[in-house]
């Protein structure tokens, strides 16, 4: 559905820490598009507009996550919305509903799989009817992982004539912090699971985001182990319960090009020898406290210097019986939770609007919707690299 809109793109939550970074990136790199900022407080938005150097006529819209009328007006005013207002299970449902109804594209940073499934069940049909393209998980969870597998499978098909049946994601380096929004989402999810056993069952299901399809048993990844491919101890990766679900959803949305028997897991590399084993055990201990006291709060974040000093390096290992192995590295040049995430979600939105206008309406993952086009844009603009190793 094509509509005349006041804006191409609105950043909802632009006065928050991550939303401001997104708005700043747009102002610096994409000032030529029609864009604006939305939130509860117009004065705060005006301050952000001035401080990031956006033009004085950059549109400001008052909208509240609990005010359906304001969200409907927001959705009708733009072609696409970037939302950074989480936890999304607490503050995101009404905006998704408004965009699905209006035929407006929607992108967010959610890694809240149970909420995402509820949105798929509630709004997939309406989005397809209205013309909306709704895309969750457009930040560190889960773009580098989802696209890393996508890229590796392209390499496998060229080398072997078939996809890798088994892929492992191994986080070799992660310098930087998770966002306060991620920590808050973790707390909200755990609270929901404590009050509803069905939520806990969904959290455990690797195919929770593939309605109507359930594949083979997947590695649980909840214990430390020695990884022969890495020559090192590996520990549970706290984002794995999010990323693995998105990877399986991408496979399903694309018609299972990785195969219906595809197996995938993620872990973080701790190191070799007894020191590596001890480091892996410490990671398990730290994971248990994630989201608790001491975690970053929404609205808080690292300094610009710290964001620019951050980085990440993820190795993907694909294998088939009698086919050997393929190694692919995905790297980012900023801290994962803020610097890289703010660039990734913006590039997802611009790609959807400018490069992938032919993507059908519905609820997507970034990779299934935009694939190679998004990889090219991230490499060109957002400091990511995708390279074959070995």
Descriptive account of the structure:
There is one protein chain. The protein is of the alpha/beta class and 390 residues long. The chain has 14 helices and 14 strands. It has helices at residues 17-29, 42-51, 68-76, 88-91, 93-102, 113-130, 143-160, 180-195, 197-204, 240-253, 273-289, 304-309, 336-355, 366-381; strands spanning 7-12, 35-39, 59-62, 78-83, 105-108, 133-135, 166-175, 225-227, 232-236, 263-271, 311-320, 324-332, 362-364, 384-389. A seven-stranded parallel sheet has the order 3-2-1-4-5-6-13, sandwiched between helices. Strands 8-9-10-7-11-12-14 form a seven-stranded mixed sheet. α2 links the parallel β2 (35-39) and β3 (59-62). α1 (17-29) crosses α13, α7 crosses α10 (240-253) and α8 crosses α9. The protein is globular, with a radius of gyration of 20 Å. It starts with 6 loop residues before the first strand and ends with a strand.
Topology (SSEs and partners):
Layout: E1 7-12, H1 17-29, E2 35-39, H2 42-51, E3 59-62, H3 68-76, E4 78-83, H4 88-91, H5 93-102, E5 105-108, H6 113-130, E6 133-135, H7 143-160, E7 166-175, H8 180-195, H9 197-204, E8 225-227, E9 232-236, H10 240-253, E10 263-271, H11 273-289, H12 304-309, E11 311-320, E12 324-332, H13 336-355, E13 362-364, H14 366-381, E14 384-389
Parallel strand pairs: 1-2, 1-4, 2-3, 4-5, 5-6, 6-13, 7-10
Antiparallel strand pairs: 7-11, 8-9, 9-10, 11-12, 12-14
């Amino acid at each position: 559905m094509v509509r005349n809109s006041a804006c191409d793109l609105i950043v909802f939550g632009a006065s928050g820490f991550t939303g401001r970074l997104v708005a700043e990136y747009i102002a610096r790199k994409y000032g030529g598009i029609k864009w604006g900022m939305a939130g509860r407080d117009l004065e705060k938005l005006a301050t952000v507009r001035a401080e990031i150097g956006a033009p004085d006529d950059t549109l400001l819209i008052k909208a509240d996550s609990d005010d359906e009328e304001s969200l409907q007006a927001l959705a009708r005013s733009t072609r696409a919305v970037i939302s950074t207002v989480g936890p999304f299970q607490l503050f995101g449902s009404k905006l998704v509903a408004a965009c699905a109804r209006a035929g407006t594209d929607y992108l967010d940073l959610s890694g809240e799989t149970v909420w995402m499934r509820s949105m798929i069940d509630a709004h997939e049909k309406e989005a397809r009817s209205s013309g909306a393209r709704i895309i969750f998980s457009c930040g560190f969870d889960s773009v580098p992982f989802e696209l890393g597998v996508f890229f590796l499978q392209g390499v496998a098909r060229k080398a072997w004539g078939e996809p890798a049946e088994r892929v492992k994601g191994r986080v070799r380096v992660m310098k930087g912090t998770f966002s306060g929004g991620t920590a808050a989402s973790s707390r909200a999810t755990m609270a929901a699971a404590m009050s509803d056993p069905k939520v806990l069952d969904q959290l455990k299901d690797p195919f929770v985001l593939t309605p109507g399809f359930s594949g083979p048993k997947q590695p649980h990844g909840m214990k430390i182990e020695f990884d022969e491919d890495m020559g090192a101890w590996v520990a549970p990766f706290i984002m794995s319960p999010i990323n693995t679900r998105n990877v399986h959803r991408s496979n399903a949305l694309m018609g299972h090009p990785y195969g219906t028997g595809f197996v995938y897991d993620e872990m973080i590399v701790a190191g070799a020898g007894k020191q590596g084993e001890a480091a892996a055990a410490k990671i398990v201990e730290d994971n248990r406290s994630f989201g608790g006291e001491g975690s970053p709060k929404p609205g808080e974040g690292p300094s610009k210097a710290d964001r620019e000093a951050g980085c990440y390096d993820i190795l993907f290992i694909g294998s088939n019986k009698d086919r050997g192995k393929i190694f692919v590295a995905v790297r980012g040049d900023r801290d994962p939770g803020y610097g890289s995430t703010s660039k990734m979600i913006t590039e997802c939105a611009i790609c959807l609007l400018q490069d992938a206008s032919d993507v059908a309406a519905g609820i997507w993952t970034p990779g299934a919707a935009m694939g190679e086009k998004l990889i090219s844009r991230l490499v060109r603009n957002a400091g990511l690299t995708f390279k074959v190793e070995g």
